[in-house]
Amino acid sequence: MVHNLSDSNSILGTYLSELRDVQIQQDPMRFRANLERIAEITAYEISKKLTYKTIETETPLGIASCNVLEEHPVLITILRAGLAMHSGFLRYFDRAESAYVSAYRKHTTPEDFEIYVEYMAAPLLDNRVWIISDPMLATGNSMNTVFDALKRNGTPKKIYIAVAIATQEAIERVQKHFPSSTEIFVAAIDKELTAQSYIVPGLGDAGDLAFGEKV
Fold first, then answer.
1. What does the DSSP assignment read for 193-206?
2. 46-84: per-residue pLDDT in tens?
3. Can you give the chain as a three-state secondary structure string?
4. pTM of the model
5. Can you list the domains of the chain with their CATH numbers?
């Protein structure tokens, strides 16, 4: 199931516009802040899908019945571009455990590359709810490679994928690779993918814009 958050108007559109704007992108702090705010909105939408339990909470004047999360998800981010979105998710799921996976493109030509995972730090993953965040879902190959690395450490109860911008091609590739119950939350879906696997109109390289150009 794919949830395109741009299908309805909200303040998300403002943050997404600023994220794409080549002038506003000159401010890395603003760029990171917009990724964080998009992640916060997405976290709220995903929270509606989770399981809750009712507890009795003592107030200064009595007892209130409150619905709270039955279990906290594992927040999984793909380094390094995903760090800003991860911060946004942690503001909403502030008791969640975190997992970090380093995945990178190794190019043989400007058009051809393979995805390598060289580092992973994760809590217990088996039978847990996973939320995997990454700003861009261009081809879907990085997301699929990361999933293959993660599932060696456990089988998820449920997976939610959260991205800022995706292509339809990538969404379809991920849907074929992930469990059929996986839900994808995306702020926008762009149509074009260049020969170098960049999304058009997209926003450029999210990692470089957030944290500086790689050498």
1. E-TTS-EESS-S-H
2. 999 999 999 999 999 999 999 999 999 999 998 888 899
3. CEEEHHHCCCCHHHHHHHHHCCCHHHCHHHHHHHHHHHHHHHHHHHHCCCCEEEEEEEECCEEEEEEEECCCCEEEEEECCCHHHHHHHHHHCCCCEEEEEEEEEEECCCCCEEEEEEEEECCCCCCCEEEEECCEECCCHHHHHHHHHHHHHCCCCEEEEEEEEEEHHHHHHHHHHCCCCCEEEEEEEECEECCCCCEECCCCCHHHHHHCCCC
4. 0.90
5. 2-211 (3.40.50.2020)
